[in-house]
Task: structure prediction
Amino acid sequence: MSAPLPTSDFRLPTPRTYAILGTGALGGFYGARLQQAGCEVHFLLRSDYEQVQQHGLVVESIDGDFTLPQVKAYRTVQEMPTCDVVVVALKTTQNHLLPELLPPIVKPTGVVLVLQNGWGIETQVAELVGSDRVMGGLCFLCSNKVGPGHIRHLDYGQITLADYAADYAPCGITDRLKQIASDFEQAGIAIELAEDLLIARWKKLMWNIPFNGLSVVLNATTDAMMAHPQTRSLAKSLMQEVQAGCTACARFLSGSDRSISSDFIDTMLDYTAKMKPYRTSMKIDYDAGQPLEVEAIVGNPLRMAQQAGLELPQMTMLYQQLTFLAAQQSS
Ligand SMILES: NC(=O)C1=CN([C@@H]2O[C@H](COP(=O)(O)OP(=O)(O)OC[C@H]3O[C@@H](n4cnc5c(N)ncnc54)[C@H](OP(=O)(O)O)[C@@H]3O)[C@@H](O)[C@H]2O)C=CC1
Ligand SMILES: CC(C)(CO)C(=O)C(=O)O
Result:
């Protein structure tokens, strides 16, 4: 049964303009691909501004390298035009800036598309722009920013897109979701449309929580963790906790029985076993001495489950270990 469409299923104009908040590994890659496909894209930058303003964006990609010698680059949102789709591609550790970054650039009829990892971000954005103007995307992408304005796309790239409604109520496949999907597909990005953003987000967390977290705590890449029976078993136990957290969250927020099937756990384990040896984004950040996205990826889901009356002991221990390591790193 398809879910009821939200009252907010207003269509977006054609063509749609895009703003990229955070022109890094993810925002720089997808934004460049959208521009390459003909979309009008405006890039917000920080330390890379001068380089990108003068020399554009360089993208090395398994799908073919390309350079955009000229892009619409900005240092502040005040310089940017309002856009139809504002893509949030900052690290979530920068989300305290969203109250100042978002309002000036979202058109009155525009939407905000959250492409970050983690839980609860759409709700934070909805408080800024209204719950009828938020959408989410889960990016299965392996990409790094290797230099100012220089992106290296290593693997994958597909995005699961879903619309948002208050309390993560299922929205079904809305017209505006299809419009944005068509822009990304025109840019050669594989898109999956999901009726239920809550399920889609917890499915991504089923990968991010064990593998981003354990890669830091155990100082290991994904292949090494999958090759050892004990760490494979630990990853599966964490996935089972995420599965329980998802069910409790759905019941708490909307009184509904929505859950992730146990088959999906085996699918994710098989998927990871087949991945090229991969240093997760959290491990890359840890090794580089950068802030870790612990709160969005582990803390928020843990607190959501606890709010729903469910304790998750292994996720709790992982959170304690990661927050300790993050504190040691910054001391
Ligand atoms: N990389 C990947 O393959 C994947 C990433 N993700 C998720 O996507 C999100 C983004 O990650 P990722 O792209 O890897 O991160 P990056 O650090 O590569 O990109 C973030 C960009 O935001 C910029 N930035 C930071 N603060 C500001 C600011 N105040 N104004 C303007 N720009 C700013 C940074 O610039 P500066 O250099 O100045 O700090 C940086 O270029 C995260 O939630 C991550 O978990 C999800 C799936 C895969
Ligand atoms: C699943 C994966 C590895 C790629 O999308 C990811 O989410 C990350 O590196 O943060």
Remarks:
- Residues 117, 139-142, 207-208, 212, 280-281 surround ketopantoate (ligand 2) (CB under 6 Å).
